[in-house]
Design goal:
The chain is mainly alpha-helical and 52 residues long. The model has no long low-confidence stretch (mean pLDDT 78). Keywords: DNA-binding.
Amino acid sequence: MYGDANSKFNLSIDWLERFKAGHGIKSYRRFGESGLVVMENIEDASPQIRAK
């Protein structure tokens, strides 16, 4: 009814990008560069941040 069940589903990158743009699908970075945080700096700055 909908084609061969054994056929491989194949999409191009362009098709996927157009689909995402047409449906408003976007990718966001929630927290950038989180691996570069030095924990000692955070511990030193915590009292100053809490005082505000």
